[in-house]
Input
Amino acid sequence: MTEQDLELFSEYFQLEHQIPVNIKDGGDWDSIPTMDQFEAMIPTPYKIASEMKGLEQTMLRPLRQLGDVIEPLAEYLKAQSRKIDLMMSYILQGQDDDDLKFQASSYGGGGFVFQSEQVFTLNNWIQCKLFFNEEAAAVFCLGKIVEVETISPDEDIVNNEPPATSYNYKVVFHRIRDEDREVVVRASLHQQSKLLLNKTKQRSNK
Output
């Protein structure tokens, strides 16, 4: 099963970029909720956020094909969309639990990698919240820990205490709505475009 999970993880582009995530241990893999049970678990703000993103894409896509003639209307709708993004971003920030907060170092349509000093069990399922603050979006899903890498601590001793060992956990999405997977993929592509644009500007300024 782990080999299939790793194949699923590698099917999608994985972006090296940090985002905040909430992680809650769910338990043994055999106890993972069914898809119907999972959809009943999804908090309302996540459902609203993904639906709003879908509507935004649907509205703006045909306008782009009309060219400059419709540009003022397109700009107006973008401004309205920005207002909605700000409101949704504020609502979603309230879903971020400090007690469950970690940092993902990479993410993509197949899953993500996060680092933690807390010990999580290989092959357990976990409840995940991914926050894409620059996109005013967030995703609620269930994943499976398929790989654990121990990160050796630095030799330095801080405050007379030995440094803590931390771990990199690779997580594969197993309970995620199609529209939410699209949110993750779209966020990774948008961020990649920004990173490439910044690199281009840096080279041109040299």
